Amino acid sequence: RWGRRQRALLWAVLLAAWEAAWGQLRYSVPEEMPKGSFVGDVAKDLGLQLTAIHDRGVHTVERGRTQYFSLHGKTGHLVMAERIDREQLCEGVQQCVLRCELVVEGEMKFYEIEVEITDINDNQPTFREAEIELRMSETTAPGVRFPLPRAHDPDAGRNSLQSYELSGDEHFSLAVQAGPGGDQRPELVLAKGLGREEAAFHELVLRAMDGGDPARTGTARIRVTVLDANDNAPVFSQAEYTVRVPEDVPVSSTLVTVTATDVDEGLNGQVKYSYQTASVKASKIFHLDAETGVITLMHNLDFEEGNSYELEVQVRDGGDLSDIAKVVITVSDVNDNAPEILVRSALSEISEDAPSGSVVALLYVQDQDSGASGEVRCSLDGDVPFRLQSSHGSYYSVVPARELDREQATEPGLFRVGLHSGEVRTARFPLARDAARQSLVVLVKDHGRPALTATATLSVVLAESVAELLAELGSAAEAAAPGEPAAGLTRWLVLAVAAVSCLFLAFLLLLLALRLRRWRQQQLLPPAAGALRGVPVSHFVGIDGVRAFLQSYSHEVSLTADSRKSQLRFSGASCCDTLPARPPPDEPAPLLGDE
C-alpha cells in the first residue's frame, strides 16, 4: 500500500508533467542566490536536446526591464542572471513570483516559466527611532495605554516580525493588540501609579523578534518623563482618512490634511503631528507637516510601481498624550504608457505553397497601464495577404490570410539594406516606372530599453546615360541652397562624375588609335605565299612594312703560330647578293615578291 508521502510525490510528478505538457514550468529558488546559480533543468523538463538549443534559436525573454534569468547554452539549465533581493523586488507581497518565457524560434513555440523567490531571514526587525521619548502626567491612572512605535521587518512568513518584549521596572507592562490586517501593535501600559517626587524618569527597553532560526532582534530605548497633570488627550477628527489621486498629480500638491484637537490650554493643548508607521518608500514620497498636518507630494507617483499607500499619523500634545489616525492614499491609473510590440520570432521569407496556418512571425504585445487603458487592439496596416491570430495571453501569430501567389504579390522595393552590415543593395532591376530620384532613410537602433535610434538619408539618382546623370545631379545641386552641405556634396559629385567620364573617353580614343595602327600594318604587309617562299625568316628585314633580303657572307680566317699578321681570305662563292641591282633612275623599282 502506498503511504501518504508516496501519494504526494506522485501528485507532484503528475502536476509537473501536466504543466510541462501545457507549456508552463515552475521552479523555486531562495533569494540572494549568486549570479549563475542553478534554477531548473529546462532542457530536461521540456525534452529538448542540447544541440537543438543552438539550432532552433532557444532563448529566454522577460517582460520587465531587468533580466533575472538566462539559459545556459551548454547545459540547458535556467540560471540566475542577477542577484535578487526579495524585499526590494516584492515589498509587501506574500508570494514573490517572477515570470519569463522560453521561445523556440525554429518551432515557433514558447513556454511560460514561473520562478518563486522564497524568503531567507536576512533582515532583522528595526524601529524607526532607536530612542523614544514619552511624557506622562503623574496623575495618569494605572491601566492607561500608550501606543508605541512598531518595528519593521521586510522579511516574509516566519522570518518576519513575530513578537515584542519589554524590560524595565514594575511601573510599566507591555500589551500587544492585533490590527485590522493582523499586524501586531505594541502598547505601553501603566501598571502602577507614578510619582514625580519618587522618580522623574523611567528607562525601558522594547525588543522586537522575528521567527527565524536563529531569531533576529531589534531594540529601542524608551525614556519616560513624569510631568504634571494633563488630563485631556488630543483626538483626531476621524479615525481614517481616505483619498484617491491620479498618478500624474503635480509634485508639491496637497493630498490630504489631518486635524486633531486638544481641549487643554497652554502647552498641554498644543499638538504636533508625526508618522507613527510608514514604509521607507512612503516617507520619501509623502511629506507631513508637523504643525498643520498637511500631507503633500514630494516625488512623482507611478501607478505601475505602487497603487496604494497606508500611513499612520500620530498626534501628541504638550503633555505627551497622543492619538493615532490611519491615512489611505490610493493612486488611480492614467493612460501614460504606450503599447509595445516585441517581435519574438520572424521569418524572412515564406514559400507561396506554404500550408494554411503557417506562422510567419510571433509577436508579443504589452501595455503597462491597467484597466481600459491597458487593453490593446492589434491589426495589420495595408493590403497584405496576412492576418493576426491570437495565440495565448498577449502573444499573436502572423499567418497567411489566403493562398499566397508570388505573381499577384506587391512589387518589392528597389533597394534593401543589410540587417547587420548596413550595406544598401538593389533588390531588383530598375524599371521605367521607377522615379529617377530615390530617397532612402536608413534607421539603426540598439537593443537597450528603451531602444535608441539614429537615421541617415541616402539620395540615389537613376540615369540611362552619363549626360542624363550629370543633368540630374546638376538639377539636384541647383535645388539645394548654396550654403547647405547637400549643395557642396552634389557639386563634388558632379565634378567627380565629369572627371571619370573624361578619363573613360580618353581611354576609348587611345584604344581606337592602337586598333587602327595595327589594322594599317596588316594591310601593308604581303601575304606569306609568293616569291619569298622558302627563304629563312632571319634573312629578312622589315622597314615601314617593306621586306628586303639580307646578304649573307662567309669568311675564312687562317693563323700561324709565328705570324704576327692574320691572313683573311674571302670566298667569292659564299657571297650572295640577295638584293637586285639598283634600277636606272627612270625605271621603277620592282616590288619584292613580284615575278
UniProtKB/TrEMBL annotation:
Residue spans crossing the bilayer: 492-514
Keywords recorded for this protein, A-Z: Calcium, Cell adhesion, Cell membrane, Glycoprotein, Membrane, Repeat, Signal, Transmembrane, Transmembrane helix
Membrane topology of this protein: Single-pass type I membrane protein
CDD domains referenced in this protein's UniProt entry, alphabetically: Cadherin_repeat
Cellular compartments annotated: Cell membrane
Residues annotated as signal peptide: 1-23
A single GO BP: homophilic cell adhesion via plasma membrane adhesion molecules
A Pfam cross-reference name: Cadherin_2
GO cellular component: plasma membrane
Residues annotated as domain Cadherin: 28-127, 128-236, 237-341, 349-487
GO molecular function: calcium ion binding
InterPro entries noted in UniProt: Cadherin-like_dom, Cadherin-like_sf, Cadherin_C, Cadherin_CS, Cadherin_N, Protocadherin/Cadherin-CA
PANTHER family: CADHERIN-87A, PROTOCADHERIN GAMMA-A3
Protein's name according to its UniProt entry: PCDGC protein
Organism, as annotated: Cnemophilus loriae (Loria's bird-of-paradise)
Gene: Pcdhga12
